[in-house]
Structure formats: C-alpha cells, structure tokens
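Lecture notes, continued. The same structure-token format from the folding unit now serves as the input rather than the output. Read the line below as a description of shape only.
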C-alpha cells in the first residue's frame, strides 16, 4: 500500500514541478494587470505587484487580461507604408498573441488588420474585429482551446447583432 502511495506522490510532484520551474503563473500567482508600455513592450503584473516584461522584442498594443487572471493577450504592432497624403507610415496590428499561465497559447492572424478584440466567456473565447484600412470589417468568435471559429459576422453591427459583436463595435 505505501509503495503505491509513493508512486502517486512522485508522479504528482513531477507533474507540478516543471510548470513552477518555468515561472508559469499558478492560482497563487494570478495576474492583476497586463499592459503595453509607451515603447510597446508587454508587461504582466502579478497579484503581489511584481512587474515583468514578457513577449520578446515585438511592439504590442491593446493588452488585455482575461477574468481568469491567467490568460492574457495583446496585438502585435507593425508599421506599413501608406499612400495617404502627408503620412508615410501607419501603425497597424495583423496578429493577436494569447498567453496562458506564462506560456504562449495561440496566435491569430485573420488576414486583415485587427481593429479590436476582447475576451469572452471568462477567457475561454476571444472575439476579433478585423478589416482593411478603409473598408467594412469582419467579426469572428474563436474558441481558445481549439482555435476554431465559433461564429462570424460582417459590418454593420445592428441591435440584432450578437452581444459579442456589439462589444467590439468601434
């Protein structure tokens, strides 16, 4: 009997130790805030107040923390050339990166510029609003566990549009 208990204890300890060693957030170290600073660096702030830079050397914007306190995401900013008078470049976002527990979970590249995004269902889903610089946009609701599209819609948003679409209306 004690031999089985020792095996179970060792198995549990090995399963938990690697996540903690990686610095992944646990229920005891939930995040209180996530933000992109003025230079575009992404930061996470633990519930104890520790502020850490994450996400490498990319420029981020529109950082958000899901209600679960462990899932966060941000848009990756880039500059593109434009033919607009008096404006050589414009900042856009073509990629959304989501992390959970300190590890990159998924990246989304919808094919157009991301105009807005947000968490839904406590962090289990994301809603994306994307489109060209000067054209109508497309809305998509995505399951984070699978990366699959759950629903979609087009501009214009109306009173009859689903709540997840209306929440992203610019």
């Amino acid at each position: 009997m004690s031999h089985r208990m020792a095996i179970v204890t060792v198995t549990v300890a090995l399963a938990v130790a690697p996540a903690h060693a990686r610095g992944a957030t646990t229920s005891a170290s939930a995040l209180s805030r996530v933000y992109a600073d003025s230079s575009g660096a992404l930061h996470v702030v633990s519930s104890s107040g520790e502020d850490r830079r994450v996400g490498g050397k990319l420029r981020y914007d529109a950082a958000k923390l899901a209600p679960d306190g462990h899932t966060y995401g941000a848009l990756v900013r880039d500059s593109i050339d434009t033919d607009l008078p008096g404006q050589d470049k414009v900042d856009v976002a073509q990629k959304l990166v989501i992390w959970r527990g300190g590890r990159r979970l998924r990246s989304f590249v919808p094919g157009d510029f991301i105009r807005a995004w947000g968490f839904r269902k406590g962090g289990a889903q994301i809603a994306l609003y994307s489109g060209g610089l000067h054209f109508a946009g497309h809305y998509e609701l995505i399951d984070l566990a699978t990366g699959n599209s759950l629903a979609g819609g087009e501009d214009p948003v109306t009173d009859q549009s689903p709540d997840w679409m209306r929440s992203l209306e610019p």
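Point for the exam: Residues 2-166 form a domain with the Lipocalin fold (CATH 2.40.128).
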